[in-house]
Amino acid sequence: MHSSWLARVEVFASNGxxxxxxxxxxxxxxxxxxxxxxxxGNVADCLLDYxxxxxxxxxxxxxxxxxxxxxxxxxxxxxxxxxAWAGIMLTIVLFAVPRRLVVxxxxxxxxxxxxxxxxxxxxxxxTAGTQSNSSAPPxxxx
Length: 142
What we know:
Elements: H1 9-15, H2 26-34, H3 57-60, H4 62-75, H5 82-95, H6 99-106, H7 112-120, E1 125-127, E2 130-132
Antiparallel strand pairs: 1-2
């Protein structure tokens, strides 16, 4: 189970487990298989904080992940859906991105702690239709 997913047991019982056909993208394939079969949503709150390492699987096996991801995209390809075309194009472009750049973009660079600390603080509080980083109450306008 992916660390950022929540699912009921029934989802696995009725849709199966991870496929062994995509060893570097089994979670991607599983989620793609669920699209259209079960309700999928996104929790707006940040519930998980993790660090991307240069030695992590998403960097070490990046090319294999991209290859498996492309295979999944082709398996579920819908030629009438523009997002299917865009996804395949993005995957192909990502093959050309150097590994060092991926490491920089994913978080192992000097400003990463700064960005992580600001991102983990969550979105700014919204008060009376205005955005504010302060938790102070809105001014009284009466």
